[in-house]
Amino acid sequence: MQPALLHKLACPMDKHDLSLKVFAKDTNGNIIEGMLHCQHCNRQYPIIYGLPILAPDEYRQPALEGNITQRWQIELPA
Ligand SMILES: [Zn+2]
C-alpha cells in the first residue's frame, strides 16, 4: 500500500479517518505490514501483504488477522 493512499481510506463502520502505524515497508516505501486505527470507534484494521483489510465487523476474519496481530503483539479491541 502506498502511504499516499491513507487519506483516501476511511473506517468501513463509521467513515471516519484512519491513522496508520507502519511495521514493515519495501524498498520503494510501500507499506507491506501495518495497522490502521479509527480513533472514533477504536477499531483496528491490518495491512497484510501490502493490502489494507478494511472489512466491516461481519466480514472480518480472525484467522487472517491473527498472524499479524500475534507477530506484532497487537491487541484488537473485542
Ligand atoms: Zn471507526
What would the keywords be for this entry?
single chain; 78 residues; alpha+beta; four-stranded antiparallel sheet; binds zinc ion
Describe the overall structure.
With 78 residues, this protein is α+β, with helices and mostly antiparallel strands. It has one domain (3-71). Helices cover 13% and strands 29% of the residues. It has 1 helix and 4 strands; from the N terminus they run E-E-E-E-H. It has one helix spanning 62-71; strands spanning 18-25, 31-38, 44-48, 51-52. It has a 4-stranded antiparallel beta sheet with strand order 1-2-3-4, covered by helices on one side. Strand 3 and strand 4 (51-52) form a beta hairpin. The protein is globular. The termini are far apart. It binds zinc ion.
How many distinct helices? 1
Q: Alpha-carbon distance between the termini? A: 26 Å
**Average pLDDT:** 90
Question: What hetero molecules are in the model?
Answer: zinc ion
Note the beta-strand portion.
Answer: 25-35%
Helix content: 10-25%
Rg, nearest Å: 12 Å
* Series of secondary-structure elements, N-terminal to C-terminal: EEEEH
Total beta strand runs: 4
Gross geometry: globular
Give unreliable regions as ranges. Answer: none
Secondary structure category: alpha+beta
How are the strands ordered across the major sheet? 1-2-3-4
Whole-number count of domains: 1
For the sheet with most strands, the description reads: 4 strands, antiparallel
